[in-house]
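Chapter summary example.
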Amino acid sequence: MTPKQQSTPDITEGPDDHSPVETVTHFLNAMQDGDLEAVLALVADEIVYSNVSLPTIRGKDRFSRAARAYYRNRLGFQVVVHRIAGSGSSVLTERTDALIFGPFRTQFWVCGVFEVENGQVTLWRDYFDWRNTTLATLRGLVGIFIPSLRAKFSDNR
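The structure predicted for these 157 residues follows.
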């Protein structure tokens, strides 16, 4: 299941009209679509964004600046969600993320924890393996020069 297969949010609906799992799915869709306004509408003012072992971003203003810089530099994001589960306000995801810049593409597994309150993401914490990410980055660099080695999602995702 990929988030792209889910319906996109109807901006006329209120934020409380979606379950936490639906909110996270909409959030990942918006990230993948490069829809910055939808991304920002789905995060709370007190958002905490953390890639474990990297600096934490706290607050919507800082998150917004980071997201705007990401999209301004024409970086792409794709995601395949392998598993998603919710319990109360918590949502867990097991995903493969792809970060793309021109011919460079790095693709690696990620486990994410999201907390959702009132239809907005208050916590986004991703866990990943540095070895896996480093190897994916090296493959991405090789893929610039040998496109057949470039990582891509399989059709059966």
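To summarize the output: The longest strand covers residues 104-117.
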